[in-house]
Design goal:
Elements (H helix, E strand, L loop, with lengths): L2 H27 L4 H26 L7 H29 L5 H17 L4 H14 L2 H27 L16
Helix pairs in contact: 1-2, 1-3, 2-6, 3-6, 4-5
Length: 180
């Protein structure tokens, strides 16, 4: 891939990362509206991915772009956006340790009710609690955010790359030899 395309992906990946940060903050500020915020930001992310990919195809690749190149560009776009978002989540969760309190309290209550109902034994509940304690640390939560955003970007890329690909931009304007 051309170095201009890499710069393009880095620059616009930053903008994708900002939208991912907004999605994270929507869930924090008003949990009841987080579902609506997720839908709006997901639509915005798909639209941005389409626009940025089309822009890269037209400006850097002169309108000629295979599916593989388009997908690779979108994966890079998702990677840079995910990195920006994951760094923000890492810093935020490190500076605001109360972020995990609500989650861990809810899980602890759920585990206690499972133990009381007899569904799980005490040792199983203890093991689940240890797993949850390990999972809900700033580093692991940031890594989970990174991976989730990358998967989301990859699956979005599978569709958007098929739309923005253009193997031969002159195919529709080339005269047909059979019509002479």
């Amino acid at each position: 891939m051309k170095s201009e395309a890499l710069k393009h992906a880095m620059y616009y990946g930053l903008l994708i990362g900002i939208v991912l940060i907004i999605r994270f903050l929507c869930g924090l500020l008003n949990p009841t509206l987080s579902g609506l915020g997720n839908i709006v930001t997901m639509v915005l992310l798909v639209w941005m991915t389409f626009k940025f990919s089309s822009n890269c195809r037209d400006q850097i690749f002169d309108g000629m772009w295979s599916y593989g190149k388009a997908l690779w560009y979108i994966i890079q776009l998702a990677f840079y956006g995910s990195m920006v978002s994951a760094v923000f989540v890492l810093v935020y969760t490190s500076l605001v340790p109360s972020f995990f309190e609500g989650i861990t309290d809810l899980i602890a209550t759920s585990l206690e009710s499972l133990e009381e109902s007899g569904v799980y034994s005490e040792t199983m509940v203890d093991e689940l609690q240890k797993t949850m304690d390990t999972m809900f640390t700033p580093r692991s939560y940031s890594a989970i955010t990174l991976i989730a955003n990358l998967f989301n970007g990859f699956f979005t890329g599978l569709i958007v790359a098929a739309i923005v690909k253009n193997d031969n931009p002159f195919a529709s304007t080339t005269p047909n030899d059979n019509n002479e």
